[in-house]
Amino acid sequence: MTAPLIDPFARAIRYLRVSVTDRCDFRCVYCMSENMTFLPKKDLLTLEELDRMCSAFVRLGVQKLRITGGEPLVRREIMTFFRSMSRHLDSGALKELTLTTNGSQLERFADDLFAAGVRRVNVSLDTLDEAKFARVTRWGRLPQVLRGIDAAQRAGLRVKINAVALKDFNEDELFTMTAWAAARDIDMTFIEVMPMGDIGNEDRIGQYWSLKDLRAQLATRYTLTDLPDDTGGPARYVRLNETGQKIGFITPLSHNFCESCNRVRITCTGEIYTCLGQEGHSDLRAPLRSSESDAVLDDAIRAAIALKPKGHDFDYSRQAVDGQVSRHMSHTGG
Ligand code: SAM
Ligand code: SF4
Q1: Of the given ranges (50-54, 187-191, 206-210, 271-275), which has the lowest mean pLDDT?
Q2: pTM surpassing 0.90?
Q3: CA 159, CA 119: separation in Å to the nearest integer?
Q4: Which atom of ligand 1 is nearest to the CA of 192?
């Protein structure tokens, strides 16, 4: 049997997030600039290469695979990839195949995703106000996303909403969004805005809304019960007693979650980032392309995991954003 991936701090790597494209049909203000230059197609892993890469990680012990981007559902023929990954679900090696999406293409693909074995999907949605939605996504249209969410639920997919907490933007929608989600039996996760990439003139500090404050606001209306912390990720969860909803808080800037980190990320060009908050990465595309045998790739993966750092250096405590990383979230995959 192949030895599982264990990093130098004795953390077993069980969770892989893969960005399948850097492109997107939205231009969210905290994620991209309006005029993005995307990578040349030849730099991207082909669908066959993505399959080989993900299959290598599954062979090495990864049990959860999250597909992200950019917008994963705008990658041409991406359903071929999902269908192909379902063989690892069938074999039992992979416990979960899932994705993070902006929802714009869900109406088209919800049934196909379910048929490929996907059971849960994270949909990013920061506001329920049509005009505000258009402003924050620049190119997005709210009704299309809402139809996508309906289609996903009809198809049998469990939907979770991810909302970036933005000061003076969606603060006033905390209760309307929570109630809207509760009525649809949808859990929610709030994300603190992270300092990633050059996104034009947006003022990141001005956008920052502390989840400590968000949580305190929730507690004025609901009874919050802390849930055990077993995901190995940056989210902390509570249950709202009144609605039964699970609410997550992702606070990578203010909470040290690194000691239990079980995940690594692959970019659409085949680089592996073993820490979201660090620049350090290794190239897996060259080893992948260098040989038809998977032995070279497996060795490169093990070598990269051996370099996984202990933790990240984000720091908002001074007025400048320290520890900022220059790449876009759409490159590494959120
Ligand atoms: N396009 C898909 C989507 O929006 O769900 C998947 C990729 S997107 C980069 C993944 C997640 O990252 C989204 O929930 C998005 O809100 C979040 N995100 C993007 N930029 C961010 C930032 N600077 N800080 C915090 N979250 C961010
Ligand atoms: Fe696209 Fe997702 Fe980034 Fe928005 S957050 S621009 S939907 S990749």
Answers
A1: 206-210
A2: yes
A3: 9
A4: 25
Of ligand 1's listed atoms, the one at least distance from the Cα of 71 is 1
Q: Which residues are annotated as a binding site for [4Fe-4S] cluster?
A: 24, 28, 31, 258, 261, 275
> What length does the chain have?
334
User: Domain 15-332 sits in which CATH superfamily?
Assistant: Aldolase class I (3.20.20.70)
Q: Which residues are annotated as a binding site?
A: 17, 24, 28, 30-31, 66, 70, 100, 124, 160, 194, 258, 261, 263-265, 275
> Which residue among 329, 330, 331, 332 has the greatest number of ligand 1 atoms within 8 angstroms of its CB, and so is best to mutate?
329
pLDDT over 70 percentage in the chain: 87
Query: Who wins on pLDDT, 141 or 314?
Result: 141
